[in-house]
Amino acid sequence: MDRLISLEPSNVVAIRIEQGQKCCGQLTLRNVMYTMPVAFRLQPMNKTRYTIRPQSGIISPLTTVVVEISYDFPSNSSLPGSFPYCDDSFLLHSVVVPGAAVKNPSSTHDSVPIEWFTTRKKQVFVDSGIKVMFVGSLVMTRLVKNGSMDEIRDVLEKSDMGWKAVDSVDSEGQTLLHLAISQSRPDLVQMLLEFEPNIEARSRSGTTPLEDAASSGENLIVELLLAHGANTEKSESSTWGPLHLAAGGGHVDVLKLLLLRGANVNAVTKDGNTALHLAVEERRRDCARILLAGGAQPNIGNLADNETPLHIASALGDENMVKLLLHKGANKDIRNLSGKTAYDVAVEHGHTRLFDALRLGDRLYVAARKGEVRTVNRVLESGAAINGQDQHGWTALHRASFKGHTEVVRLLIEKGVNVDARDGDGYTALHCAVESGNADVLELLVKKGADVKARTNKGVTAMQIADSLNYAGITRILINGGATKDDIRNGSKNSLAFTNKIGRKYDKNLDSIKKKSTRGRELRGSFEWSASPLAMIN
C-alpha cells in the first residue's frame, strides 16, 4: 500500500492570490482505509510562509477532511518569483491508529500527539509530493499578458475553489478576454472561450470584448466571439457599438461579419450617429458602400445637429462620398438644426467643386429640359460641370436632345460637351434625339460629329430605332451622316426583342413624341428595340 490518504482533486494545492485579500487554498484528504481511522499531520517545508488549519487530525475510514492552507502575501508585494508553479512543498505524515476515538466521522483537531508520527513501533507513511500552484487574478492576468498558453490552461483546469478563474480582472478592469484581444491573440481567445467566460463582461471603460475586437479590426477574434453568442449591439455603458467601431476604423471584414450576424445597420451611438455617419466622417468609402448595401438609411440626422451623412461629407469636401450618397438616395434638401442644407455646408467650408453635385447640376438639368438657353449659359459660367451625369447617367445634352431644344444643344456643344457621352444603358444624346423624332437636334448632332453608329449596351443603333418607328426623315439624316442600311440588319435579335413593358412606357409619352416627329407619322403599336428609360424625361 503506497498511501493511507489520497489527495483530492490532485497533489497540487492551488493558492489564490488577490491584492488586499486573504491568500489561501484548500486540500481535501481522504482516508482510503475501509475499517481503520488514520491520523495525519501536514507540515510546510517553509514554516514562515504558510499556515495550515487543521495541521493534524484523525480521519474516519473512507471519509474526508478539508485542510485550509494560507499563504503570507504582503499587500505591497509583487507576485512570487516563480508563478504559477512554486518550489515550496509539504510533508504529509499518516499513520493507522486502531481504536482511536473519533466523535464525529468528519471531525478533526490539532492535538494529535506528535509522538504518533515518530514512534518507531508504528508504520508512518510520509508523502512529500504535495506541491503549490499560485492562482488568482494577479496570476491569471500576468500569464495572459505573457501569452503563456500551457500555463494558463493548467491554472484554469486546477482552479476549483468556487471561483471562476477565466473571469479574472486586472487592476485596470480588463478581463482575460480583453487582455488577449489587446495582444491580437485569436489562439488565446479561443482557449479562454473553452472555459466559458462572461463574454459580455465590460472593462472599466465600459466596452465589451466584441467592441474591443471590432475597434481593433480583429476579424478572426470577432468571428470567434460571434460564434459564441456575443451581442452585436451597443452595450448600455458604451458610447459606440461594434458596428460603429468597425465602420469608423475602416475594418471592412469585421463590418461584413457583424452585418452577416444581424447587427442593426441603423443603430445609433449615444450622440445619435449611425455607423454611416462615422464611416463618412472618417472617409471610409468602402465601409460606407457596405453599409448602404446592407440597408443603411442615408437621411438619418444625428441628435446633436440633425446632420445627415451628406452634411458631413459636404463639410469635408469629400466629392466621391457625396456622389456615393446621392447615388444611394441621399436627400440634399434636408436642413440641419442651423437651417443649412448640404449645399450650404459645402459653401460655408469653401468646397466649390461640390457645387455641381449638390446644386448647380440640378439647375443645369432643369434648364436643359425646359430649353432655357440663358439659364444654361449662366449656370455653366457659375461652375456647373457640363458633362455631369445624374443618377441615371443622363447629361444635360441627353435631356435637351430628347426634348428637342436645338439652341440648348448648340450652346452645350459650343461649350465643349461630350456629344457621345453614354447613360447607364449606353444611350447617347443621338439615340435620344432619334427616339423623340427631333430631326433638327439630330441634324445638329450629326454635323458636330456625333457617332451615328453608336450602339447601346444591348447593341441597338440609332438606325434601328428610326426604322422601328418608321421615321423616314430621321433615317435619311442618319444615312447622310454615315449610317447604312446594314446598321439595321446587323442588329442582335436579343436587342430587337419586343417587350410589352417597354411599349407601355412609350404609350405614356406617345403624344409628345408624335408632336416632335418631323413627318408626324403615326407610331407603331409595338416596339422592336430595348429602349432607354423614358421615365427620366419628366
Short description:
This protein is of the alpha+beta class. It contains 24 helices and nine strands.
Description:
With 538 residues, this protein is α+β, with helices and mostly antiparallel strands. Helix content is 38%, strand content 12%. It has 24 helices and nine strands. The strands form two sheets. Strands 2-9-8-4-6 form a five-stranded mixed sheet. α3 runs antiparallel to α4. The chain is rod-shaped, with a radius of gyration of 41 Å.
Give the arrangement of secondary structure elements.
Blueprint: E1 5-8, E2 12-16, E3 23-31, E4 38-44, E5 50-53, E6 56-59, E7 64-71, E8 85-96, E9 124-135, H1 137-146, H2 149-158, H3 176-182, H4 186-194, H5 209-216, H6 219-227, H7 242-249, H8 252-260, H9 275-281, H10 285-293, H11 309-316, H12 319-327, H13 342-348, H14 355-370, H15 373-381, H16 396-403, H17 406-414, H18 429-435, H19 439-447, H20 462-468, H21 472-480, H22 486-489, H23 500-508, H24 510-516
Parallel strand pairs: 2-9
Antiparallel strand pairs: 1-3, 3-7, 4-6, 4-8, 5-7, 8-9
Helix pairs in contact: 3-4, 3-5, 4-6, 5-6, 5-7, 6-8, 7-8, 7-9, 8-10, 9-10, 9-11, 11-12, 11-13, 14-15, 14-16, 16-17, 16-18, 18-19, 18-20, 19-21, 20-21
Keywords:
9 strands, alpha+beta, 538 residues, disordered C terminus, 5-stranded mixed beta sheet
The helix content, as a percent range, equals: 25-40%
Q: Helix- and strand-based class?
A: alpha+beta
Any idea what the shape is?
Answer: rod-shaped
How much of the sequence is in beta strands? 5-15%
How far apart, in Å, are the first and last alpha carbons? Answer: 101 Å
Unreliable stretches covering 5 or more consecutive residues: 103-108, 492-538
Mean residue pLDDT: 84
Radius of gyration: 41 Å
Tell me how many strands there are.
9
The major beta sheet can be summarized as: 5 strands, mixed
Strand order of the largest sheet: 2-9-8-4-6
Helix segment count?
24
